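Aggregate trends can hide what the representation actually does to any particular protein. For completeness, the protein is quoted in full, as a sequence line and a line of structure tokens.
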Amino acid sequence: MHAITIPEPGGPEALVWEEVPDPVPGEGEVLVEVAAGAVNRADILQRQGFYNPPPGASPYPGLECSGRIAALGPGVGGWAVGDEVCALLAGGGYAEKVAVPAGQLLPVPEGVGLVQAAALPEVTCTVWSNVFMIAHLRPGETLLVHGGSSGIGTMAIQLAKAVGAKVVVTAGTEEKLRRCAELGADVLINYREQDFVAEVNKATDGAGADVILDNMGAKYLERNVQSLAVNGRLAIIGMQGGVKGELNIGALLSKRAAISATSLRARPLGEKAAIVAAVREHVWPLLAAGHVRPVVDREIPMSDAAAAHRVVEESGHVGKVLLVTP
């Protein structure tokens, strides 16, 4: 098969489409013939040499894919060769084939195309696990989503609205904010021109956001705590704004607030399987009913993954950038 390899860390040109050995599914795994993968920020970090795959994972980038089951490994039940699936991966999605633990498989949702389904596993698992399983967003509460036009952001808007929450988003252009509004966002904040702390305060009559989904990390830490409501929950899922910040414990105590920080890639198989099962139970019916949909910015041939990385690094996209196999 062919896969994207990274012979040496570097810029987008470090991604090389070359022939490599086919993966072999092990105990409890299936072999998926990949129709499409998707670009995530973690892939860019891996390409740059800052985010190595966990032990035992494929060395190739790619944290999600869609495709058809080509073979079943020992001990796998409930799936059949030919099933159309999408999958959460620890790596290997930038390839024509990938071995996947069966617990990380999802059927392609009704009403979603096979290629477009590649846009779903990472965002649905990230949003559902952080916003609902950990932060427990409830109907009537307010969710602040930083990077509302990203793949994570576009899914967070839709899922929060589906459960009856109010959604506040930040984004860097009026066009991105317009797209967020189309997905249901109630309050739009241009972070280049507006102070999101003041805007959240205004939008909530001074109460603050009950849940904040943050991809920035250190840069926004102090202002996120200021923006939290009493009993608010801050879920940190990224470090685009740095890794070290100063935390005012007094402010956190006064609000009886909580901060969580998670990633998916290195979690144990059992934890990933539990998240995938929860997504299948709660999110897949919303997709089938048309209440939630994948947001795809563009599709690019997988062999030209370098072009896809440039698109994501320039941050001009809305939703997911997909890599389609030949």
Q: What stands out?
A: The first strand starts at residue 2 and ends at 5. The mean pLDDT is 97. The CA atoms of residues 124 and 283 lie 7 Å apart.
